[in-house]
Design brief:
Blueprint: E1 2-11, E2 14-24, E3 29-34, H1 40-47, E4 55-60, E5 63-64, H2 70-75, E6 78-81, H3 93-99, H4 106-119, H5 121-125, H6 136-148, E7 154-158, H7 166-181, E8 185-189, H8 193-199, E9 202-207, E10 210-216, H9 217-222, H10 224-230
Parallel strand pairs: 3-8, 3-9, 6-7, 7-8
Antiparallel strand pairs: 1-2, 1-4, 4-5, 9-10
Helix pairs in contact: 3-6
This protein binds adenosine-5'-triphosphate (ATP).
Adenosine-5'-triphosphate binds near residues 14, 16, 34 and 39.
Family: Belongs to the ABC transporter superfamily.
Keywords: Amino-acid transport, ATP-binding, Cell membrane, Membrane, Nucleotide-binding, Transport
Organism: Castellaniella denitrificans
């Protein structure tokens, strides 16, 4: 479904991704783990065309999207819940969800919002509340909900459990499973390697901009190097 082939991305002279090749198949949950600064966020953002890959090729549903602009990539069926959630604190829950619906017509927006409210009943209860006054977990649900407004085929999730309490983390992983059951493919970046590999069909390990390991979630969980470096074993 999504394919990165030898993708290199730079910030000026700084190379953040070095010939990265990654594949996400339809219906999968794929997890990307790696230390701080390994390039995980850059990889997800490169899929969205911002920053654009300097070399290599990115295809989505067999179409080359390497040079597409971000809004065209979103219209093709990719959505992202960015690192740090980035909800608009002064806007209400409903207004934040509307921001995720920028290219939908009114009927599609209403349908999208109903779908998000079915998935996150808490957001329905809080539809009129300003996002900045909600808990971290609620804001994360809102960020995921906003990404789902366009009914994407592929959802990119950047560190959805960062800074959340264990109980909320478990809820977020349950939601990720539910989203996949609804037919959305998920590409997940996580610091919480243990939980993220448990939920994943397959995973990749990124080190200083390079993919160093690729395997099933189960195999990565039992891999000695992964256990030492990322699972605190
Ligand atoms: P973290 O988990 O800490 O967010 P990450 O694996 O997501 O890390 P990136 O944020 O993708 O890593 O960063 C990869 C590299 O690119 C780092 O060396 C970082 O300093 C650099 N980098 C990221 N964003 C920028 C930017 N806007 N300008 C310059 N360098 C950047």
């Amino acid at each position: 479904m999504l394919k990165l082939e030898n993708v290199s991305t730079f910030y000026g002279a700084i190379q953040a991704l070095n010939e990265v090749s990654v594949e996400v198949n339809q219906g999968e949950i794929v997890t990307l783990i790696g230390a701080n600064g390994a390039g995980k966020t850059t990889l997800l953002m490169s899929v969205c065309g911002n920053p654009r890959a300097r070399s290599g090729r990115i295809t989505f549903l067999d179409e080359d999207i390497t040079q597409e602009s971000t809004h065209v990539i979103m219209q093709r069926g990719i959505a992202i819940s960015p690192e740090g959630r980035r909800v608009f604190p002064d806007l209400t829950v409903a207004e934040n969800l509307n921001m995720g619906a920028f290219f939908l017509n009114r009927a599609q927006t209403e349908e999208g919002m109903e779908h998000v409210f079915d998935l996150f009943p808490r957001l329905r209860e809080r539809a009129g509340q300003r996002a900045g006054t909600m808990s971290g977990g609620e804001q994360q649900m809102l960020a995921i909900g906003r990404a789902l407004m366009t009914r994407p085929k592929l959802l990119l999730l950047d560190e959805p459990t960062l800074g959340l309490a264990p109980l909320i983390i478990a809820q977020i992983f349950d939601i990720i499973r539910t989203i996949r059951e609804e037919g959305v493919t998920v590409f997940l970046v996580e610091q919480n390697a243990n939980k993220a590999l448990q939920v994943a069909d397959r995973g990749y390990v990124l080190e200083t901009g390079k993919v160093v390991l690729a395997d099933t979630g189960a195999n990565l969980l039992s891999n000695d190097e992964v256990r030492k470096a990322y699972l605190g074993a």
